[in-house]
Specification:
425 residues; nine-stranded mixed β-sheet; alpha/beta; five-stranded parallel β-sheet; 16 strands
């Protein structure tokens, strides 16, 4: 492998512009640092504040030219599109309600997109955006960054290789304590449902848990029986959600997310049990993957340790026994997206191991899951269809009666054969 695949393909680094993530933003700094770790990008432009003076000041502190520090995301996209040396890629880390607007504008301008989750606030927007990505042929990367951890990718590879056998049980939880007390959120826009989305906890961390479950198992959630709401008195936006799951292959599971567990920091966990063994992983100790095979001693897998599979090895930069963490997993998403973007621009096939980053299809499926949880809650926890048939993309108002389980999840329309099997809910 080249020391820098992007330079090998293009003769230069990708030119990156960022919208959002200015002074005081945790996630903004993570995006910028992730882009730099593997030297695939040059940061050339930014909109770091809606205030022109603050945006220029922040951009200058990052070493940007004053004329490439914008006070509006749309202005950044238009300005960079007009330059011969304009940005190739736009990274979006704004409040949730503007993800759709800026993603569509960037795609219309011919720019590849890296977008923070959730992809959009509404299901209709997600469907429109996915179709735009497909029509444009551009790369869209959704930063569900936890899928970049080497041991998460090891788990995915082990499941795909059949080391767990048939998947029977799944459990995923994402538990935080940052909103355990009443009061205004650290980011006040999150307290506004119009900006934070119809369910804050589901958009903020529920989509992460759902994506992690799908990434590791390769399975879709078929149905949910869910509850979502608030546990902190006087709070308006959701801080808790729980659901029982029925997976597309018949496996059963559970899902639990909250931001109101006092004292808990960032406890994202997953357990997957199959006919041949069980895997367990937790984000706060990301270097360790527990594997408990049937009839054999429990094992602990580590990055680049014995039994490392190619996808995991691709995602680790150092030899066994040296810790990597949140920055590096985030950088894996950025670096893989860079390889895909550079290959597209060079007219070459991308390295297959670099194509495991979340995309717009994952974004739509995440919004479908959020929608299903909310609808199930509104029906007193009734079992509710979570996604369309895997051989088509059904709207949320339809139930597909197709029993096929190995169809492609990224088809944009029902086939003629299956249209007759769709019935209104």
């Amino acid at each position: 492998m080249s020391l820098n695949p992007v330079i090998s393909l293009l003769g230069r680094r990708l030119r990156l512009a960022v919208i959002g993530g200015g002074p005081g933003s945790f996630i903004g700094a993570m995006h910028r640092q992730a882009a730099r770790i593997d030297d695939r990008y040059d940061l050339v432009a930014a909109c770091l504040s809606s205030n022109a003076d603050r945006s220029v000041q922040a951009g200058r502190e990052l070493g940007l030219a004053a004329e490439r520090c914008y006070a509006d995301g749309e202005a950044l996209i238009a300005g960079e599109a007009a330059r011969a040396d304009g940005a190739d890629v736009v990274a979006i880390m704004t409040p949730n309600d503007s993800h759709f607007q800026f993603s569509m504008a960037a795609l219309n301008a011919g720019m590849d997109v890296i977008c923070d989750k959730p992809m959009t606030n509404t299901l209709d927007e997600a469907q429109t955006l996915l179709q735009k990505v497909k029509d444009s042929g551009l790369v869209f990367c959704l930063t569900h960054n936890y899928t970049g951890y080497p041991m998460v990718r090891q788990a995915r590879a082990m499941v795909a290789a059949g080391e767990l056998g048939d998947i029977r049980l799944v459990q995923v939880e994402y538990v935080q304590g940052g909103r355990s007390q009443p009061g205004v959120s650290r980011s006040p826009w999150k307290d506004d449902a119009a900006r934070g989305g119809p369910s804050l906890v589901m958009g903020d961390i529920g989509t992460h848990a759902h994506n992690l479950l799908r990434f590791v198992t390769g399975l879709e959630v078929a149905q949910v029986a869910a509850e979502v709401g608030t546990v902190v008195p006087t709070r308006v936006t959701h801080d808790y959600a729980g659901a029982m799951l029925r997976m597309a292959n018949g496996a059963r599971g559970s899902f639990w997310v909250t931001q109101a567990a006092t004292g808990v920091e960032n406890a994202l966990r997953i357990r997957v049990s199959g006919s041949l063994g069980t895997l367990e992983w937790q984000q706060e100790v990301p270097q360790l993957l527990s594997f408990k095979p049937h009839g054999a001693p429990a094992q602990t897998r580590t990055p680049n340790g014995p039994g490392t599979l190619p996808l995991s090895a691709h995602s680790s930069r150092i030899v066994a026994g040296h810790p990597e963490g949140f920055h590096e997993c985030f950088a894996n998403i950025y670096s893989d997206a860079a390889q895909a973007i550079a290959a597209r621009r060079a007219g070459k096939a991308a390295e297959p191991l670099a194509l495991h980053f979340p995309n717009a299809t994952d974004g739509l499926l995440g919004l479908q899951f959020v929608d299903a949880v909310i609808r199930s809650n509104g029906s007193n926890g009734a079992w509710t269809t979570a996604t369309g048939c895997r051989c088509c993309t059904c709207s949320r108002r339809q139930t597909c009666r197709c029993s096929r389980t190995r169809c492609r999840p990224d088809r944009t329309a029902p086939s003629q054969k299956h249209k007759a099997r769709l019935r209104p809910r």
